[in-house]
Structures are given as C-alpha cells and as structure tokens.
C-alpha cells in the first residue's frame, strides 16, 4: 500500500441518499439539487472542491440522477434562447456549472449507507488520498476548511476529518469523536468515533461534519465493514477501524475543529436558515430582502405581543 504521497486532486461527492427528511420535495429530486437561493446546494460544494484544487470530481448518484447530470451538462436549447435574448448574465451563470470541473458519475444501486457510497468511488479514486464532501453540507467560502485538512494529511499521513462543537443535546444527530490534543499542531488526534450516540454515552460534544480527506486504505476497511446503525454501512465505522490501523498501512485519524460558518441543507430548519443567511448577503437580492425581513420580523413581534 502506498502512503498516497501525490497531491490530492480527487473529490468524491456522495449524492445517493434517500433524503427522507425532505420528502416530498426529494421524491423525484436528490436533496443535493435543492436550490439555496438560486443555485443547487451541490454546486456550492463543487465550487468549494475546485477552490481547494480538486478539479476531478466524482458524484455518487442514486435514483433520480438525471437532474444532477443535466445540471452540470450543456443545455443547448436554453443557451440558444438566452443568446437570442442577449441575456448574457444568465448565459454566463448557466455555463458556470458546465465548466467548473471535470465531473464524473458512478452509480450506487441501493442506498446502503454513506460508507457504501464511498466504496463505490474506489475504482475512480485508485490508490490516492482523496477528499469526500457531503453534498448537503455547505462550508462558507470565506472560511475555507479543505486546504488545512489536506495540509494536515500531507504532514501526518492517515485520514483527516472535520469536527464542530455542538450542544450536547444535539450530539445524537451526528457521529461523535473522542480526541487528544496535540499542542504542537493545529489538529487533534482522534481516539474514538461513535455514530449517533446517546447523549449520556457520547465521548464529547465534537460532531463529525461532511468533509473528509481519506487515505485509500479506507476502501479495504469498507469492504469488510458490516452494516451498523440503521442497517447502513457507516463511514464512521470504517474510520474507527482506521484509528487502530498501523500508520504504515494507511491508519491514523486526525481532525480539525472547525469554527467557521457551516450550513446543513439536508435538515429543513437549517435549510431555511441557510437560504435566508445567504440571500441577505447577496449584492443583488440582499438590500431589498433585508428591508423586507426587518418589516416581517417587526410584524411577527407585533402579533406575538397582541396574543
Ligand atoms: P444522510 O445521512 O443525510 O442520509 O446522508 P440521507 O438518506 O441522504 O437523508 P435523510 O436522513 O434520509 O433525510 C449523508 C450523505 O451521504 C449520502 C447522502 O446523499 C448525503 O450526502 N448518502 C447516504 C449516499 O450517497 N448513499 C447512501 O446510501 C446514504
């Protein structure tokens, strides 16, 4: 097994989940295609990968893959119509998605879990360190996270995950990590991982978020990983096995504790919050939206005082 010394160039974006929390919107559309203001969530994620130097992107698709593939493909009829109207700004915006990256697709036949989705990327990734970005988890472009994860992987080898501090009452919604500080480094050493723990049994309030820089050794482990929580093959279980794998075999897991802005668009409430946050910051929509929002909040407060 090589230690994956090449520069990281490949990103894998699993988008084959069932998206049950968002039904019925996700009945015929992957949740990664839901718009955040006016762009599908997954486009923000592809843009983040490209900004970190990962311009070979593999999207793991499930049922309803058509809309994903179409989004990153040319749309000749639409281009012709916009060209005829001289609508160059919209033309530019639809072409953006087409030229962003070298995008590939692989099919996950059954939604057997995130770990299984990552395993579907093995043939494309080969024997190289690669990044995994969850398509419904957005990192604000002003707070780049992937470059520091790639740097930590380059310095220490093994795999690198990203953690955020959450309210202890919410830890059961995430994978949760036990860590040891490394005073000499800006990363921490992961000593245990538990998927969606009971708050009483959680090793910390550090929750795993959807960015990973993985050693290819993860594929060997995933192949032998039995279904865990919810009957799914969990990436967290494979990462736990990598914690105790010797470094010469690609083992070892470090983490970055991320303190920047992150938006979870797979959860309905967070999705609404994300849309509002990103819309108020837009130079084209922000000013008008912000003044409407102020009036709306004032109205809400007035009706609540009346009650
Ligand atoms: P989630 O845990 O959010 O699951 O997956 P989900 O099924 O998509 O959504 P809910 O919980 O039913 O609403 C985390 C990420 O892993 C992908 C999802 O698309 C999402 O990006 N995933 C999950 C797969 O690609 N395949 C799977 O089998 C499971």
General description of the model:
It is a single chain. This protein folds into two domains: 10-266, Spore Coat Polysaccharide Biosynthesis Protein SpsA, Chain A (Alpha-Beta Complex); 267-307, no CATH class. The protein contains eleven helices and 13 strands. It has helices spanning 41-51, 66-71, 76-84, 88-99, 114-119, 122-125, 146-156, 217-223, 235-243, 268-280, 286-306; strands at 10-15, 35-36, 39-40, 56-61, 102-107, 130-133, 137-139, 159-165, 175-181, 188-195, 206-214, 253-257, 262-264. The longest helix is centred in the C-terminal third of the chain and has 21 residues, at 286-306. The termini are far apart. The structure holds uridine 5'-triphosphate. Residues 14-22, 60, 108, 111-114, 116-117, 134-136, 266 line the site of uridine 5'-triphosphate.
């Amino acid at each position: 097994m090589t230690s994956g010394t090449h520069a990281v160039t490949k990103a894998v974006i699993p988008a084959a989940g069932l998206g049950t929390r968002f039904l019925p919107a996700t009945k015929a559309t992957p949740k990664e295609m839901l718009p955040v203001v006016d762009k599908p969530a997954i486009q923000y994620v592809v843009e983040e990968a490209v900004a970190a130097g990962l311009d070979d992107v593999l999207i793991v698709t499930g049922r309803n893959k058509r809309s994903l593939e179409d989004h990153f493909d040319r749309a000749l009829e639409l281009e012709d119509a916009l060209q005829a109207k001289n609508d160059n700004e919209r033309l530019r915006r639809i072409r953006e998605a087409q030229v962003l990256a070298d995008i590939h697709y692989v099919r996950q036949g059954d939604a057997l879990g995130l770990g299984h989705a990552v395993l579907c990327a093995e043939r494309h990734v080969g024997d190289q360190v690669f990044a995994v970005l969850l398509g419904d988890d957005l990192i604000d472009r002003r707070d780049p996270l992937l470059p520091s994860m790639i740097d930590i992987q380059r310095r220490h080898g093994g795999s690198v995950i990203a953690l955020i501090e959450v309210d202890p009452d919410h830890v059961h919604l995430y994978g949760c990590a036990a860590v040891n500080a490394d005073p000499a480094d800006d990363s921490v050493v992961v000593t245990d991982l538990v998927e969606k723990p009971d708050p009483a049994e959680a090793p910390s309030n550090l929750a795993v978020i959807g960015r990973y820089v993985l050693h290819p050794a993860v594929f060997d482990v995933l192949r032998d990983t039995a279904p865990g929580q919810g009957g799914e093959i969990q990436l967290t279980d494979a990462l736990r096995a990598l914690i105790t794998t010797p470094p010469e075999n690609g083992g070892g897991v470090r983490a970055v504790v991320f303190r920047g802005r992150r938006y979870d668009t797979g959860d309905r409430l967070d999705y609404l919050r994300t849309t509002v946050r990103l819309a108020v910051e837009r130079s084209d929509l922000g000013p008008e939206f912000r003044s409407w929002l102020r009036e709306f909040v004032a109205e809400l407060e007035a009706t609540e005082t009346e009650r």
